[in-house]
Amino acid sequence: MDSYNEENIKMYFFENRLKTYEGWPFDEDCKCTPENMAKAGFIHTPSENSPDIAMCFFCLKELEGWEPEDDPEKEHKSHSPSCHFIALKKKVEELTVEEFYRLQKERHKFINNKSCNEAVTKFEEAAKLRRADIIKTAMGEE
Length: 142
Ligand SMILES: [Zn+2]
Hints:
Blueprint: H1 6-9, H2 14-18, H3 34-39, E1 42-44, E2 54-56, E3 62-63, H4 72-79, H5 97-140
Antiparallel strand pairs: 1-2, 2-3
Residues 41, 56, 58-59, 61, 76, 80, 83, 85-86 line the site of zinc ion.
Family: Belongs to the IAP family.
Organism: Oreochromis niloticus (Nile tilapia)
GO cellular component, one term: spindle
C-alpha cells in the first residue's frame, strides 16, 4: 500500500477532520465544538447508538460520552498521553518532509497495534466458542 496517497494523509488536515462533524451534538456555548474537536485531532465516528463518538485520526483513541465542558485537547492528552499528534509543537503544514515521515511512521505503529489487537480479540472469541462446543460435545458423549 502506498502510505502517502491522498486518502491516507487526508485527516492530517484540520479542514478534512472538521467536515466529519455532521450531526455532532455540541455546537455552541461549549468547549467541545466541532472546531475544537477537529483542532485536537479528533474525527467524528458516530455509530447508531452513540452519536458522540470521536476518534483521534492519529493514535486511534476513541472517546465518547462528551460533556459540554470537556476540553478536547485536555481529554486527548489525558486519555492518550503517547499520541504524537497532540504533542506536536508545529502545525502539520510546517513540518519538514523528514518530520512528517517520522510522524507517519509512528502513526502506522498505532494502526498496526489496533489491527493486531482486534485480530487477537476475534481469535480469542472464536476460540472460546469452539471450546464451549467441544465441552458440550464431550459432555453429551459421556
Ligand atoms: Zn491521538
